[in-house]
Design brief:
The complex is a heterodimer of chains A (158) and B (373).
Chain A: H1 2-27, E1 53-55, E2 63-64, H2 71-75, E3 81-89, E4 96-106, H3 115-119, E5 126-128, E6 142-144, E7 151-152
Parallel strand pairs in A: 2-7
Antiparallel strand pairs in A: 1-5, 3-4, 4-6
Chain B: H1 3-9, E1 15-19, E2 31-37, E3 40-47, H2 55-61, H3 64-71, H4 79-94, H5 100-128, H6 133-152, E4 162-163, E5 166-167, H7 175-198, H8 201-207, H9 215-220, H10 226-229, H11 237-240, H12 261-283, E6 304-311, E7 316-323, E8 331-335, H13 337-342, H14 345-348, H15 354-364, H16 368-372
Antiparallel strand pairs in B: 1-2, 2-3, 4-5, 6-7, 7-8
Classes of the chains: A alpha+beta (158), B alpha+beta (373).
């Protein structure tokens, strides 16, 4: 006899569960939360702290804020950041000044931990909101963050 | 020769099959070597090492700030709690007392992590037992927590929001509102979970009386977390060794005595309510204060050993740091909950069906990178 009562109970609880899903089927038209792939690039707004990739912002005169202090390179846990730098004589003061040649960023090694950006004393590097990082060749993931011909903004060291 | 005689003459012998490392019911690369007789399991031997990344060795190379982000990759479903464990251990060594604000924010994020982890477990447990709907319902609600994390911490899974001495930056202005919205909505969803799966007779028949773990075995095998509490072993680190703001909130430690798969399921479902209650107690009055205590750029722990235990969503995580006074630790050891819980699997899966082993594994809530590290 318990065989039939088990079948009865099984069907009854199944229907209880289906009443939940059926309820959503009928009334949850406006509350649909399925997210589509963000093809709406013009109106898309990511969260402002979203960690996409590390970029170095430049102003209109192609100047950045990076003094080449290498704090980010030291803070990075997995060697994603390499800075090639040199000391050149500043013609105005006659003193030797540290200038970055290339700020190399290996996106392929980056774990998006955010330690480099926390370590940067001049906020020269920031997070970008970009989320599509797949490429056909991994060499494209090694990026030079400072633009060609760029220079450091005067007075940022102080 | 009658039929009965023929059956007696058939010789059966045990043979072994591999369950995993790639198996739809194992949530990761865990290889179980099953010795089976027909469909009855005689022996289960877990074989580890498929996702070993030598995180403990890498910790010896890194500075104390850099260790934190590696622990994200151990138990990725409770990454915030792992981060906190390392930070608490380092703070213990530096003898820093973080502000109340940091403690409360850490606790809220801990509990949100726990809810997210239990949500995912609930969905996956239903899926392992053949109920696909639970998966979508759980991920729908987990998505809201992920949004909270993304807005405040910047990442959805591997947050790395804790640093030794506090938090990386302050919470987002929307954090409180979003969390309250989530709590209000989530409280209506837990009864739905119960209607969908817990009350289902078919589900109960699959789980009740399966894989019974006694309290004595739980203690002697060092099992912790919801698995141990389903057997009546009071092992909640939040209760016994309170850290952060757990000493100022009021919550129950869920203890059930049945010890079967259904009891372990029930513990986690009731813990959802407790987590909701903890967040509700804290969210309205986050105290003002510093979000980060000043630490040196290069942290050097004094010579000695430091140990900190926390309660992750899976059980007790212990962080042991042995320092010789340098900027790198001499040795770091993680006592991960998954590894200890896995040790009991062979003991309680003797003479069960293969399908029941899937139910038992689902109730243990294994995260394989946590076992392997």
């Amino acid at each position: 006899m318990s065989y039939f009562s088990d079948i009865y109970k099984g069907i009854k609880t199944l229907l209880t569960g289906m009443s939940v899903t059926g309820g959503y089927f009928i009334r949850a038209r406006k509350g649909v939360i399925t997210q589509q792939y963000p093809n709406n690039r013009e109106t898309l707004k990511m969260f402002d702290r979203f960690r996409g990739e590390v970029v170095m912002p430049h102003d209109a005169d192609n100047r950045h804020y990076c003094t080449g202090c290498q704090s980010c390179e030291i803070a990075c846990p997995n060697g994603s950041i390499e800075i090639i730098w040199d000391r050149v004589v500043d013609p105005a003061t006659g003193k030797k000044k540290k200038i970055i040649d290339k700020h190399i960023y290996h996106l392929s090694m980056c774990t998006m931990c955010g330690l480099c950006i926390e370590a940067c004393p001049t906020d020269a590097i920031v997070w970008a909101q970009n989320f599509e990082n797949s490429v056909y060749d991994r060499s494209a993931l090694t990026k030079v963050l400072n633009q060609p011909g760029s220079s450091v903004l005067d007075g940022i060291e102080d | 020769m009658t039929n009965q005689e023929a059956q007696n003459k058939i010789k059966t012998e045990e043979y072994f099959i591999n369950m995993g490392p790639q198996h739809p019911a194992a949530h990761g690369v865990l290889r179980l070597i099953l010795t089976i007789d027909g469909e009855i399991i005689k022996n289960v031997e877990p074989d580890l090492g498929y996702i070993h990344r030598s995180i403990e060795k890498m910790c010896e190379r890194d500075s104390y700030q850099q260790i934190v982000h590696l622990t994200d990759r151990m138990d990725y479903l409770s990454s915030h709690i792992n981060n906190e464990a390392v930070c608490l251990a380092v703070e213990k060594g530096l003898e820093i007392e973080v502000s109340d604000r940091v403690k409360v924010i850490r606790t809220i994020l801990d509990e949100l992590t726990r809810i997210a982890s239990h949500c995912l477990w609930w969905g996956v447990m239903g899926m392992d037992l053949g109920a696909l709907t639970t998966y979508f319902y759980a991920f729908r609600d987990r998505e809201m927590i992920n949004d909270i994390f993304e807005e405040t911490c910047g990442a959805r899974l591997t947050m790395n929001y804790n640093v030794p001495g506090g938090l990386m930056f302050d919470i987002h202005p929307n954090f409180v509102k979003r969390t309250k919205d989530f709590i209000a909505q989530f409280k209506t969803k837990i009864p739905e979970y119960n209607l969908l799966l817990t009350d289902n007779v078919i589900f109960q028949k699959r789980t009740k009386g399966v894989g019974i773990l006694t309290k004595e075995d739980a203690i002697s095998f060092g099992v912790s977390g919801p698995v141990a509490r389903g057997s009546g072993f009071s092992s909640d680190v939040r209760k016994h060794h309170p850290y952060s703001a757990y000493d100022r909130v009021d919550f129950k430690e869920i203890l059930l005595t049945e010890g079967d798969t259904f009891a372990r399921y029930q513990v986690r479902m009731m813990e959802l309510w407790e987590s909701v209650s903890i967040i509700e107690q804290l969210i309205d009055n986050i105290p003002e204060g510093e979000t980060k205590e000043a630490t040196k750029a290069v942290i050097k722990l004094p010579k000695g050993e430091f140990y900190q235990r926390v309660e992750t969503a899976r059980g007790e995580l212990g962080v042991y740091i042995n320092s010789t006074g340098n900027k790198n630790p001499y040795r770091v050891k993680f006592r991960s909950p998954g590894f200890s819980n896995l040790s009991i699997l062979n003991h309680i899966s003797k003479d069960v069906l293969i399908a029941d082993l899937v139910a038992i594994m689902a109730s243990f809530d294994f995260v394989i990178p946590d076992i392997d590290r």
